[in-house]
Design brief:
It is a single chain. By secondary structure, the protein is α/β, with parallel strands linked by helices. It contains 12 helices and 11 strands. The chain has a single domain, classed as Glycoside hydrolase/deacetylase (TIM Barrel). The strands form 3 sheets. Strands 1, 2, 3, 10 and 11 form a 5-stranded parallel sheet that branches. The chain has a 4-stranded mixed sheet with strand order 4-5-7-6. It starts with 6 loop residues before the first strand and ends in a 10-residue tail after the last helix.
Length: 330
């Protein structure tokens, strides 16, 4: 009898090439509109790639992108994919004040739910920037209606990572209840976690190594992994931006090979949305409207934001008093 293959989570961080944190020192937010946009066409291309393999994925959409291209979110949802939140401005969470993070999260969640006409229950921070310094963000995420997060990378890297964090799906306590954490795929090697779940690592390693590592991951713990890709990673013709040697290497490495590798991956493994994988494992309920942000109404959104911001200012200890954390940085 052939053993059924585990169903893993496929995800997309919907952002454009000029949003990437590697270019944050050379590209300022005020200039984003000056760059030729490619995120819409590249995301549509990913939708077609997934459709050919009958795969449904979770699209973590940047709020700025959703406001700029409102029909894109609608197309993602209409094709049966999950719409989730990637924040609003692609700012690193640990460089934001908690009040700013709250305001941007509410804004992004509201516009995504209005466009998708479905609850948005999943969140992923820009560049995995929920770290030991910004765990306070999980309290805010749960309070505004998110049921799961995928922002904590259990590795040590220059701008992200919590090395001691569990590598498998788990629940984290918040002030208002448990929040499910679904980390990107890693493989334990000699006491450390090797990142193997997508992005630059997918373009760096030979495909045979990635496939072997993910197959091994399917045999450990919950036997499910989270994979991620960006629309700009299948776009080798994107404009080149100024950055340091390391940043340029990470960003532009093997862009010509990524789409072909992704197509092979979709044939070698089974994938579904993060929402469906977590529901199947019993980590969340996907029925009903769970969000506290029910409409992209400017006045209502502003009222909700002010109320929660005032509550944060009156009770800072609830979010910042954890040992070793600095929740009001930036």
């Amino acid at each position: 009898m052939v053993k059924e293959r585990p169903i893993n989570a496929m995800s997309v961080d919907v952002e454009d090439y000029f949003h990437v944190s590697a270019f944050r020192h050379s590209v300022v937010r005020q200039d984003w509109d000056k760059f030729p946009a490619r995120v819409e066409r590249n995301t549509d291309r990913l939708i077609r790639i997934f459709d050919r393999s009958s795969v449904k994925a979770t699209f973590f959409v940047l709020g700025w992108v959703a406001e700029k291209y409102p029909n894109l979110v609608r197309r993602i949802a209409d094709n049966g994919h999950e719409v989730a939140c990637h924040g609003y401005s692609h700012a690193l969470v640990y460089e934001q004040k908690n009040t700013t993070f709250l305001q941007e999260t509410i804004r992004a969640k509201a516009v995504l739910e209005e466009q998708a006409q479905q609850p948005v229950i999943g969140y992923r921070a820009a560049s995995w920037s929920v770290t030991s310094e910004s765990l306070w963000a999980l309290d805010i995420l749960h309070e505004v209606g998110f049921q799961y997060d995928s922002s904590i990378f259990p590795v040590r890297r220059d701008i992200y990572g919590i090395p001691g964090s569990p590598r498998d799906i788990h629940q984290r306590p918040t002030n208002s209840g448990p929040l499910t954490e679904f980390p990107p795929a890693t493989l334990p090697v000699f006491g450390r976690n090797l990142p193997v779940g997508g992005g630059g690592y997918f373009r760096l390693y030979p495909y045979a190594f990635t496939r072997a590592a993910l197959r091994r991951t399917n045999q450990i713990g919950s036997c499910r992994f989270m994979f991620y890709v960006h629309p700009w990673e299948i776009d080798p013709e994107q404009p080149r931006l100024a950055a340091g040697i390391k940043s340029r290497f990470r960003h532009y490495l093997n862009l010509t090979r990524c789409e072909q590798r992704l197509c092979r991956l979709l044939g070698d493994f089974q994938f579904d949305t993060a929402r469906n994988v977590l529901a199947e494992l019993g980590y969340l309920s996907i029925h009903g409207k769970t969000s506290m942000v029910t409409s992209y109404d400017a006045a209502a959104r502003e009222q909700q934001t002010m109320a929660r911001t005032n509550r944060l200012r009156k009770t800072p200890d609830s979010l910042q008093a954890r040992e070793g954390l600095r929740g009001d940085r930036g």
